[in-house]
Design brief:
A hairpin with a 4-residue loop joins strand 7 and strand 8. The chain has two domains: 199 residues, Ribosomal Protein S5, domain 2 (2-Layer Sandwich); 168 residues, GHMP kinase, C-terminal domain (Alpha-Beta Plaits, 2-Layer Sandwich), CATH 3.30.70. 42% of the residues lie in helices and 19% in strands. It is an alpha+beta fold and 380 residues long.
């Protein structure tokens, strides 16, 4: 799907299903996380940017709640107080419940959803859905919700209502992103700093879809929390894994057994990598950034154990054929790989990595490029 198609698709879907016209539109972007994976719920920094691909909500007031999406094309009656259905409508119910508690929701609505963000590709399609819906529904109710509030509302919907034990990075970038900038997001304090990001990033989808509500993601967060408790039991008290300095790791190495030690190694190293990457971007140092991407992928593979064979092959193939940097982006267990390449060598590196992928898995990866874009907005 073209990055520019979702608004037209949402409009036509709304007209066909509801036989009327939408009165509001809102959209929010997916995101690529350059570096800083699994740090936002561990008190550390992340360095995401918003991509060109977006989720669009077309909506109008109604006595009750109805929704349809290009995901299945089937109209759904929504009972916000009903049990989880195990699909995309759970995110809608979650947003509605959060808005109702804050007295920001209309009494009902007709909702059509279209998106050019690949689902399950590690590009935060769920946060884009939650943030864009929160924007659309507050517009329907005539209430004003600035971007930081939209990010918080969407986070509560995904974390508290849907049950994804995520941090706030995805919702923050979907709401607060600006063009030609990544966002250095310090999860411990909520501080955000814009870091210039010019040019385009290559995205190669592994074709392995994963869901954040699957047990592996929540298990990793549980292990991180258990690591903090295990350290406290041995009189080493730290507020978060990201608060452990590299100099403090030798003591942690003595105190923590596997797998908790591996999780701590990743978070401590990734915290340092993320801040170094932000400095490299500020100085225009792509070589340092690329090295950090490779190091970050190795840690996701070996320490956090959340990579997959498809991502590992793409990263190693890209390295072999001359990429400056590459790594799995997103929570892992599938998703997409990002590439930095020397100018003029993009096509060759991508072609060679794609061919090796086809030989190994019998198919080509989906490949596209993106640049840093803005966050949530009224309209498409």
């Amino acid at each position: 799907m073209s990055p520019h198609a979702p608004k037209a698709l949402a409009t036509s879907l709304f007209q066909r299903v509801f036989a009327s016209q939408p009165t509001v539109f809102a959209s929010a972007p997916g995101r690529v996380n350059l570096i800083g994976e699994h740090t936002d719920y561990n008190g550390g920094p992340a360095l995401p940017f918003a991509i060109e691909r977006r989720t669009v909500i077309a909506a109008a007031p109604a006595p009750a709640w109805q929704a349809v999406s290009t995901v299945d094309g089937t109209p759904h009656l929504l009972d916000p107080s009903g049990p989880p259905a195990g699909g995309w409508t759970d995110y809608l119910r979650g947003v509605i419940r959060v808005l109702q508690r804050e007295k920001l929701a209309p009494t009902g609505g007709m909702i059509a959803v279209a998106s050019s963000i690949p689902i399950g590709a590690g590009l935060s399609s769920s946060a884009a859905l939650a943030v864009s819906l929160a924007k659309a529904l507050t517009m329907l109710s005539g209430r004003r919700a600035p971007p930081p509030l939209l990010a918080e509302l969407a986070y509560r919907a995904e974390h508290d209502e849907v049950g994804v034990r995520c941090g706030r990075m995805d919702q923050t970038i979907a709401a607060l992103a600006t063009r030609e900038s990544a966002l250095l997001f310090e999860s411990a304090t909520g501080e955000v700093r814009r870091v210039p990001l010019l040019g385009r990033i290559i995205v190669m989808e592994t074709g392995v879809e994963r869901r954040l509500t699957d047990g592996q993601y929540n298990q990793r967060r549980k292990e991180c929390e258990e690591a903090i408790s295990l350290l406290a039991d041995q009189e080493l008290h730290v507020p978060s894994l990201a608060a452990i300095s590299p100099e403090g790791m030798p003591q942690v190495e003595r105190l923590l057994p596997v797998p908790w030690l591996l999780r701590a190694r990743h978070v401590v190293g990734e915290t340092q990598r993320t801040r170094t990457a932000a400095s490299a971007l500020m100085m225009g140092d792509r070589n340092t950034l690329g090295r950090i991407l490779f190091e970050g992928h190795a840690s996701l593979r070996d320490n956090y154990q959340c990579s997959c064979p498809e991502a590992d092959l793409l990263v190693e193939s890209a390295r072999t054929h001359g990429a400056i940097g590459a790594r799995l982006t997103g929570a892992g267990w599938g998703g997409a790989v990002i590439l930095l390449t020397p100018p003029g060598h993009e096509a060759r590196i991508v072609a060679e990595a794609s061919d090796e992928f086809r030989k190994a898995f019998g198919r080509f990866p989906e490949i596209w490029q993106t640049r840093a874009m803005g966050g949530v907005r009224a309209g498409g």
